[in-house]
User: Which sequence fits this backbone?
């Protein structure tokens, strides 16, 4: 009889401890009296997601990009985590961040819906291939408003560079187009460099469009641009042509060409409009470790080919 | 018990034999280690080296930096994909490297956290030996195994270790053969 | 908590005739005699239950964290505790000093064994004689004869080793593997007798057994003559006080630690208290039996080399190959897998075979069968491999020990802080001293390898005049392998 009791006790102990542990290990995070929104950075998709990311799903599937919705005047608690590498989080317009989010740690931030509108959050730590797509929207609803407003212009989903663009007569332009999408240039400079992405507290307010690159390179005639494109396509060294320069403004072109190459290589920190305000979230990164000289030439060629000569 | 004398039913006077064998083998190890130290202990005069170290998931390029004692290393640290670190053992140096930046952040772990932004960091290789540099910024699945090596010649632990291996072998052989000869007599 | 149905019995006096004149024919200190109360503890039936339970609780934490915790390995208790803490304790402390004490408390076969016995603590007594003194649930089949060796364990371990870069970095992979082992052990327990899973399948078991030969403790009988004269053989067949050896061992003639899972059933069953725990010098057993065990020895040394390159080495390409599921280098992975398997199963055994064959010539001996020499000399790699593994594991703890503190407070990597240590930042402890620790460890390994292989050679070849030349090539190979380790660790 005592033996039976011992067995029962042992069996109960095992069951209770196993069940208890499983239950106790799904803790509800402390809310501090606020609504809690958990965002997890996922490198491979280039998103902050509001889905739960754990061992059972991380290696299997993609995660959706989170849109954070709150009411005007409401304060929520953001719990920020990373499932893989170091990410950053920054909402310049609402005065949150930038903070680094280390994997395996949790960063808690309060986010206040100061005024109604659409705001963008950014990842501010380069986190891999999809980093430049890692942005999302914070929607602060005005009093009594329903969640019906159109989404802010948020970068498209990360393209892993797999898709071949429609082929143009020049391979170098194709290659440039591919890079423009796969390196994430388009996430700031717009599709085909059409520009216009907002950059909070940046001197020019929006990221410069760069489909007007031909102009900046002092190429005012379609023929001149064609000549340069042909040279780049052939892989000629533009600075050391054997024949005489093909057009009159060539030396001015060359100086600008060099300057643009350097800008892509070394990047540039975006200047503040209001010196006391927050740092603009977007800056030109330095590409010299990620892109070869040929890659950079290709990008320039692609952008040259985008100039709207007809208009 | 040693490579030689051990374990077989000790002949009369076996205790002395064992002691002798142990001494023989130990002498072999010590001699070998000393030999290793002396034989390889030459280095070139110190010089300055400028090295770019590129960090990526989950290794550094170059993976091994081999220098001589007294060299000054001017390191430029670059991350190629995500944020990495560069924690150099034995040199009180920890760096946070973000991709696509022209600077990186440096701190000295022995001092309280004060990060400085630098374009280059100088390491004086004044202690010989092997020092690994490890990633100190969680950077993905294999992060705990992301490391590289700074080898400052003369790498004494290696030389002495190899010498000791050889010495242990030679010493054991000598003792064992002596033993087998005396046994056959 | 003595089980009630078992009246406490005083040790029955042994038949006088069976008593040997020299009770202890083996070297070692009888720990049960030296430490008061130890025998009582080992005979206490609930001992194993409590040990298993404690580990089961930890295990439940690991599994939960692996499933629902952060996928970041270095901040998930599954990875940190299993692959840093447990591994270090196992290889550096438990195995060399306490033999298979891990198997006493290992939770993997717990459910299977409890189900077999329909008890967690007590004994399910049978009514019949001999084989039916205790009962068990399930089919109780005998394990197939052809598989009564450790080849399956060798294969399983090698398979896991090839995937080690995934296993030790992804909590979910560890979870699936460990969880799978529990399920497998449970299934096998219902089909086969006793600890068939542990004996023939558990991937850890192979090296636990092999390296336990070096261990400083051993379960043995005090007096073999007593056993020879003892017809009842409770230690083998079980009785009301305990089960017959679940590991199919007959302790009365057991000479090696390899397959004794230290369950301490025989302490409970032997009516003469003839079984005890001996303390003995490191590397006391030298007899490897069978090609399967020899290969286990090769695999372990070769894998220590492989990991020194893959995990501790600085070369990114190798890491990319080993980490194919993330890097996408599947071609490289195939190459890597081939290289690892080739090194373990072909190259290393071939080198060993070459050295042994040469030694056999030098030792003047067609008298000694090549296979016997091949298997016997494989013991060389046991102390060397063990010490190389310890040297490999030392930096794991010194460098990544801080993860243990943070994972303790935040097992899921989800921002908890149970003991206030969650925010401990990663900081290696004296990492620049690691090579200085590793080099002597390797030398100790080499020393034992040389000394013990000579001992083996004496047993195989007889007088020193033949045994010494016979062992020289193996000595040379062992020295060369140690030098390679020295290069990886210190150079
Ligand atoms: S053999 Fe394996 S499963 Fe069995 S007890 Fe030992 S470690 Fe656990
Ligand atoms: S150990 Fe086994 S065989 Fe020996 S006396 Fe005890 S029960 Fe009998
Ligand atoms: S019963 Fe078997 S496995 Fe258990 S301690 Fe005794 S010999 Fe070892
Ligand atoms: Cu890293």
Assistant:
């Amino acid at each position: 009889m005592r033996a039976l009791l011992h067995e029962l006790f042992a069996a109960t102990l095992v069951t209770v401890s196993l069940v208890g542990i499983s239950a106790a290990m799904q803790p509800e995070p402390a809310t501090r009296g606020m609504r809690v929104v958990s965002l997890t950075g996922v490198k491979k998709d280039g998103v902050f997601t509001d889905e739960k990311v754990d061992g059972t799903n991380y290696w299997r599937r993609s995660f959706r990009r989170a849109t954070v919705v709150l009411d005007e005047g409401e304060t929520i608690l953001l719990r920020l985590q990373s499932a893989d590498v170091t990410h950053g989080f920054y909402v310049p317009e609402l005065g949150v961040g930038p903070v680094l989010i280390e994997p395996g740690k949790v960063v808690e931030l309060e986010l206040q819906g100061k005024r109604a509108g659409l705001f963008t959050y950014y990842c501010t730590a380069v986190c891999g291939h999809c980093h430049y797509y890692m942005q999302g929207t914070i929607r602060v609803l005005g009093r009594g408003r329903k969640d019906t407003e159109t989404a802010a212009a948020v970068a498209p989903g990360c393209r892993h560079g797999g898709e071949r663009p429609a082929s143009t007569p020049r391979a170098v332009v194709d290659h440039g187009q591919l890079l423009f999408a796969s390196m994430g240039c388009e996430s700031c400079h717009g599709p085909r460099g059409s520009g216009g992405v907002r950059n909070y507290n940046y001197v020019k307010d929006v990221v410069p469009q760069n489909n007007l690159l031909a102009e900046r390179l002092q190429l005012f005639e379609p023929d001149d641009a064609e000549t340069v494109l042909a040279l780049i396509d052939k892989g000629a060294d533009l600075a050391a042509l054997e024949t005489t320069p093909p057009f009159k403004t060539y030396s001015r072109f060359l100086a600008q060409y060099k300057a643009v190459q350097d800008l892509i290589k070394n990047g540039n920190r975006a200047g503040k409009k209001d010196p006391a305000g927050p740092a603009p979230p977007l800056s030109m990164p330095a590409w010299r470790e990620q892109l070869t000289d040929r890659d950079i030439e290709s990008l320039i060629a692609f952008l040259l080919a985008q100039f709207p000569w007809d208009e | 018990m040693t490579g030689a004398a051990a374990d077989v039913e000790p002949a009369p006077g076996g205790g002395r034999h064992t002691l002798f064998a142990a001494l023989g083998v130990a002498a072999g190890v010590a001699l070998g280690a000393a030999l290793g130290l002396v034989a390889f202990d030459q280095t070139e005069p110190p010089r300055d080296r400028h090295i770019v170290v590129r960090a990526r998931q989950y290794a550094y390029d170059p993976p091994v930096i081999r220098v001589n004692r007294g060299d000054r290393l001017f390191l430029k640290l670059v991350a190629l994909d995500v944020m990495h670190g560069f924690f150099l053992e034995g040199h009180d140096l920890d760096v946070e490297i973000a991709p696509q930046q022209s600077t990186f952040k440096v701190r000295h772990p022995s001092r309280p956290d004060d990060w400085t932004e630098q374009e280059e960091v100088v390491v004086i290789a004044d202690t010989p030996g092997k020092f690994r540099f490890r990633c100190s910024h969680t950077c993905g699945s294999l992060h705990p195994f992301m490391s590289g090596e700074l080898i400052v010649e003369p790498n004494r632990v290696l030389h002495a270790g190899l010498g000791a291996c050889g010495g242990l072998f030679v010493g054991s052989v000598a003792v064992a053969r002596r033993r087998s000869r005396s046994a056959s007599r | 908590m003595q089980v009630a149905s078992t009246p406490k019995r005083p040790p029955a006096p042994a038949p006088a005739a069976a008593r040997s004149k020299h009770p202890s024919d083996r070297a070692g200190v009888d720990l049960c005699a030296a430490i008061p109360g130890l025998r009582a503890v080992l005979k206490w039936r609930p001992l194993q239950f409590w040990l298993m339970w404690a580990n089961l609780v930890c295990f439940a934490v690991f599994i939960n964290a692996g499933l629902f915790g952060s996928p970041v390995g270095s901040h998930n208790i599954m990875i940190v505790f299993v692959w840093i803490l447990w591994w270090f304790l196992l290889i550096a402390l438990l195995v060399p000093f306490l033999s298979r004490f891990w198997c006493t408390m290992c939770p993997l076969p717990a459910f299977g064994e409890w189900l077999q016995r329909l008890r967690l603590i007590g004994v399910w007594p049978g009514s019949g004689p001999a084989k039916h003194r205790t009962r068990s649930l399930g089919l109780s089949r005998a394990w197939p004869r052809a598989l009564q060796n450790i080849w399956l364990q060798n294969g399983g371990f090698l398979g896991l080793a090839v995937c080690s870069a995934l296993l030790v970095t992804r909590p979910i992979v560890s979870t699936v593997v460990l969880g799978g082992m529990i399920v497998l052990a449970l299934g096998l327990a219902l089909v086969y007798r006793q600890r068939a899973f542990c004996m023939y399948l558990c991937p850890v078991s192979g090296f636990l057994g092999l390296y336990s030969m070096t261990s400083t403790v051993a379960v043995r009988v005090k007096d073999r003559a007593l056993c020879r004269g003892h017809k009842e053989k409770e230690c083998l067949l079980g009785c009301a006080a305990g089960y017959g050896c679940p590991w199919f061992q007959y302790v009365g003639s057991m000479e090696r630690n390899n397959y004794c899972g230290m369950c301490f059933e025989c302490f409970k069953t032997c009516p003469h208290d003839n079984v005890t725990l001996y303390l003995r010098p490191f590397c006391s057993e030298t007899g490897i039996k069978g090609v399967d065990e020899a290969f286990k020895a090769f695999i372990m040394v070769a894998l220590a080399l492989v990991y020194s390159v893959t995990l501790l080495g600085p070369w990114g390409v190798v890491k990319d190959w080993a980490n194919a599921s993330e890097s996408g280098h599947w071609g490289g992975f195939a190459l890597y897998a081939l290289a690892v398997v080739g090194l373990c199963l072909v190259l290393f055994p071939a080198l060993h075979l070459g050295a042994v064959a040469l030694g056999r010539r030098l030792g003047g001996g067609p008298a000694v069968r090549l296979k016997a020499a091949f298997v016997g000399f494989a013991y060389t790699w046991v102390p060397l491999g063990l010490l190389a593994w310890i040297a490999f594991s030392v930096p794991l703890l010194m460098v990544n020990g801080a993860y243990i503190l943070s994972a303790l407070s935040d097992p899921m990597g989800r921002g908890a802080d149970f003991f206030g240590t969650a925010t401990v930042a990663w900081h290696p402890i004296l990492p620049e001293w690691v090579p200085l620790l590793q080099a002597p460890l390797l030398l100790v390994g080499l020393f034992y390898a040389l000394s013990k292989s000579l001992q083996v050679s004496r047993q195989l070849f007889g007088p020193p005049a033949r045994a010494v030349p016979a062992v020289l090539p193996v000595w040379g190979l062992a020295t060369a392998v140690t030098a390679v380790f020295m290069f990886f660790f210190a150079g």
The interface with chain A takes residues 54, 57, 78-83, 98-102, 137-141 of chain B (CB under 8 Å). Helices of chain B lie at 14-40, 156-184. The pocket of iron/sulfur cluster (ligand 2) is lined by residues C 221, 226-227, 230, 233-235, 251-252, 270, 272, 274-275 (CB under 6 Å).
